[in-house]
Specification:
By secondary structure, the protein is mostly beta strands. It is built from two helices and 16 strands. The strands form five sheets. It has a seven-stranded mixed β-sheet, with helices on one face. Strands 9-6-10 form a three-stranded antiparallel β-sheet, with no helix packed on it. The structure holds zinc ion (2 copies). Residues 93, 95-96, 100, 116, 118-119 line the site of one zinc ion.
Length: 207
């Protein structure tokens, strides 16, 4: 059994936060990386998404892929989270009231607006003492730490080390680069990883 949950994304709005089944396969994706295993090999509950026929096309394999073992990956290096500055909690920006834009009126009564400098129009800032309704930072899931964004080159193409580390946990994984994509196969399934910074598998799925 392969645990697909670690390959799922956090984007519940795209409905990719859980593995999903289409046809004979169960899939997991975070937009960068997509993995599939036969339905019988999938662990955990899955949701059927019959409108996800795009998945078939995605796995139409090009000819001549030469699979090899993955290169050695750099170790994980923790960093202070930029979203919460290591506090783990964030709160709505009080300058713009979480709108990202500040409005004011001139003495003559004219209305002005500008991007909020306090939060860089992000609407949220690291938690400050006394702020109301703080929430968990979504970048670090409240830990205050993120993993340093390393890149690894395979056949001249940059891939995200954090994604590759997850792929490397799959049993007997082998990979081949084609058209800025890493195709990989492992005992019990297969997958694809986009090159660094590419959201190749940005899907909007219907439940
Ligand atoms: Zn954080
Ligand atoms: Zn603001």
């Amino acid at each position: 059994m392969i645990d697909l949950q670690k390959f799922c994304g956090h984007r519940w709005d795209l409905q990719i936060d859980k593995p999903f089944t289409h046809g004979d396969w169960t899939y997991a994706t975070n937009c960068y990386c997509v993995v599939r295993v036969p339905v019988s090999q999938a662990q955990g509950a899955s949701v059927t998404k019959p409108s996800a026929n795009v998945m078939e096309e995605m796995f139409a394999k090009p000819n001549g892929l030469s699979y090899r073992t993955l290169p050695a990956l750099p170790p994980e290096e923790p960093e202070t989270c930029f979203g919460c500055l290591g506090i783990g909690k964030i709160c709505k920006c009080s300058d713009c009231n979480g709108k990202g834009i500040v409005y004011w009126e001139s003495p003559s009564g004219k209305e002005y607006s500008a991007d909020c400098d306090m939060c860089d129009s992000e609407c949220w800032i690291p938690f400050v003492e006394g702020a109301k309704n703080p929430v968990e930072c979504e970048y670090c899931e409240g830990t205050g730490k993120t993993v340093k964004q390393d890149k690894v080159t395979i056949d001249g193409v940059f891939f995200d080390a954090e994604q590759l580390r997850k792929v490397a946990t799959l049993p007997n994984v082998e990979a081949a680069v084609h058209n800025r994509c890493l195709w990989f196969r492992f005992d019990g399934g297969e997958g694809k990883l986009s090159s660094h910074g590419d959201y190749k598998f940005h899907l909007t799925l219907a439940r």
